[in-house]
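Input/output pair, single chain:
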Amino acid sequence: MSSPALRVLTVVLAVTFALPVTAQRLCTGDCGGDASVTVDEIVTGTNIALGEEDLDQCAAFDRDGGESIQVDELITGITYALDGCPLTTVADAAFWQTLQGVRDRQAETIALYEQTIGTNPTDSRSHFLLAMMHFYRFGRLQEDFESYSEDAKSEIITANEELDLAVMYAPDNRAYPGFRGAATYMNGIAHGDTALAEMGLERLRASITLWPLFNRFSFMGTVAAVAVAGTPLFDESFGYLEDALLPEGLFECTGRLCGNAGLAPHNLEGSGLLFGDIFAKGGDVVRARGWYQLSVSLGAGSGWRFAAVSSERLANVEVRIALYQDEDPSNDPLLAGAGAESCAICHYK
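Output:
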């Protein structure tokens, strides 16, 4: 693959399943992102303010985004070192450590966000991240799309409810509606509620109108996993992927958004795996093989935990496509992202 083509594909891949870049609320001075400020971090911040170290050594001190560290920012960091970080940053640290596979803090994350919401019921970001933790737990409970445990049903109900609140309290946020549509759709599927699933589809389509670049991935990544190959609903999902890969789709992309600010360290590898799966489900062996190969190549030296999954897909792409193309949907392989792969294929470090 030529270098220009690879750069184009990289830009597209980086968009997939990215949470908005403002998702991580850092405590001023918390260089390590663990919701605490240490003496060493204060020393680093002081050195940056004096021009002895670069800002990228601890951008968390740059509270106002001014590309420098001011005295008041150092004082704020020292205050947090003495008194502890704000509760929202403690909750966010627990969320990201869980999502990135650093530490499993699922129950703690939920408890912390319930505390932050108890203190500030209109905190849309906390409602959103609480919802995403429940969505994460729902996905990890899924081994197929035929049966759903009571625990899974409970998780998706809560995710749906919290996303409703996130949308209500942040009406101008263009990303939340896509996630809400996905949760509503899966809530309907899990409970066998056709009307609720249709509401989810309507919400997903409306979110694409609101923000085509971002929200088509919420539709494609959710609905393509459930819809049977060859049905109008799968074809609609397939079309959104093809649209996303057109050059005009790239014009909406900004480096900060598409780079995802480091919150999904393996977005490129995971997205390549998912795209390959969708093309395989659509019967396109050439593009499926190409995306699997790209995923394998990108993951070869990056420490990606799912490199073996992509390698297996690449070696057996024809077999996978044949299973999708036969007349028995019960043997269709799952798309990447269910069970232990939920969120992890892109977000795990």
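The radius of gyration is 21 Å. Residues 1-22 have pLDDT under 50 and may be disordered.
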